């Protein structure tokens, strides 16, 4: 008879498998963490439950009118207001994203924006309390980096 037929075993690791997830394992882990963090942020939920304090134009002018008197105290007062108010407002934006339909919230662009808001919230919420002008300056630097 003829030459024997050689049987080759297919190496499945080298064969393309269209059923496998095309994402790298690290990207998949990051995506899973991101989706899980979409709903599991107690500090954000607590801050989102707080009503934001709206300031009228009149009250803003009253706070900022110094007439040369104690400018430092007004800077500290404004910084304390922002330190208290910014995390609440960012938490409201995060809550708004979380109320989107799940399939919309899984969009990579929406997830990216959601993660940026979470990052900004954590930085602002974990910033130290403001007691002096130096603290206000440091808070300004931290908040401007966002």
Could you give a short description of this structure?
This protein has helices spanning 25-37, 42-48, 57-64, 71-98, 102-105, 108-125, 133-144. The protein is an all-alpha fold.
How would you portray this structure in words?
By secondary structure, the protein is mainly alpha-helical. The chain has a single domain, classed as Alpha-ketoacid/pyruvate dehydrogenase kinase, N-terminal domain (Butyryl-CoA Dehydrogenase, subunit A, domain 3). It has 7 helices and no strands. Helix 4 packs antiparallel against helix 6 and helix 4 runs parallel beside helix 7. It is elongated. The N and C termini lie far apart (78 Å).
Which short descriptors sum up this protein?
7 helices; mainly alpha; Butyryl-CoA Dehydrogenase, subunit A, domain 3; single chain; 62% helix; elongated
Itemize the secondary structure elements and their pairings.
Blueprint: H1 25-37, H2 42-48, H3 57-64, H4 71-98, H5 102-105, H6 108-125, H7 133-144
Radius of gyration: 26 Å
Shape: elongated
Strand content: under 5%
* CATH fold descriptor: Butyryl-CoA Dehydrogenase, subunit A, domain 3
CATH classification, class level: Mainly Alpha
State the secondary-structure class. Answer: mainly alpha
Query: What is the rounded distance between the termini?
Result: 78 Å
Averaged pLDDT: 77
Total number of β-strand segments? 0
- Output the number of helix runs: 7
Number of domains: 1
SSE string, helices as H and strands as E = HHHHHHH
